[in-house]
Design a protein that fits this description.
The chain has one domain: Rossmann fold. Helix content is 41%, strand content 14%. The protein is built from seven helices and five strands; from the N terminus they run E-H-E-H-E-H-H-H-E-H-E-H. It has a five-stranded parallel sheet, sandwiched between helices. Strand 4, helix 6 and strand 5 form a beta-alpha-beta unit. Helix 1 crosses helix 7. The protein is globular. The chain starts with 7 loop residues before the first strand and ends with a helix.
């Protein structure tokens, strides 16, 4: 038996528009429980998800497109596009109209896939409620970025997701 359990792998897809990225990341890293990778656009996030196996994936709904032409087209048409939603639909509901057709999904989504995701974003939950229901996500894996955001908000969100996974 390994005396040092493996750290859970966490991917945070965050455009970096908030200056709190190091402030929010530090508690996750210093907890010693998690390996944290941060990418700053949806294309890089999708590449990481398809390449690596992450235990937890945190998505910012308003995000940058990256190099993906389909994402760039959506972003150019509407600079307030919610590209994080496109990412979530691509992974969790690949047949949905908001899913990206240019991204080949490895396998059909499973209930375990849904348990990996959380959302840390500026949107109010009321704006996302219908999407959460469609994607099979619950409000306890949502946290809103605002001025009063605790420096432990990301850690708490990751802990909530890991706790839910252990209960299933």
């Amino acid at each position: 038996m390994n005396a040092f359990p493996e750290k859970k792998r966490v991917l945070w897809i965050e455009d970096g528009a908030i200056t709190e990225v190091p402030y929010l990341a530090a508690p996750v890293i210093t907890s010693g429980k998690y390996f944290l990778r941060i990418v700053n656009n949806v294309d890089d996030g999708l590449r990481q998800i398809l390449k690596e196996n992450y235990d937890v994936i945190i998505v910012d709904i308003r995000n940058l497109p990256g190099e993906n032409k389909e994402l760039q087209k959506i972003y150019r048409a509407n600079r307030t596009a919610r590209l994080g939603l496109n990412l979530l639909y691509t992974i969790l509901k690949p047949d949905h109209e908001m899913a990206l057709s240019s991204i080949p999904v490895k396998h059909a989504p499973t209930p375990e896939d849904t348990l990996k995701f959380g959302v840390l974003t500026v949107e109010e939950f009321s704006e996302l409620r219908e999407h959460f229901a469609e994607l099979g996500l619950s409000q306890d894996v949502y946290s809103m970025k605002n001025r009063r955001l605790s420096k432990k908000a990301l850690l708490e969100l990751v802990d909530t997701i890991v706790d839910r996974q252990m209960q299933t």
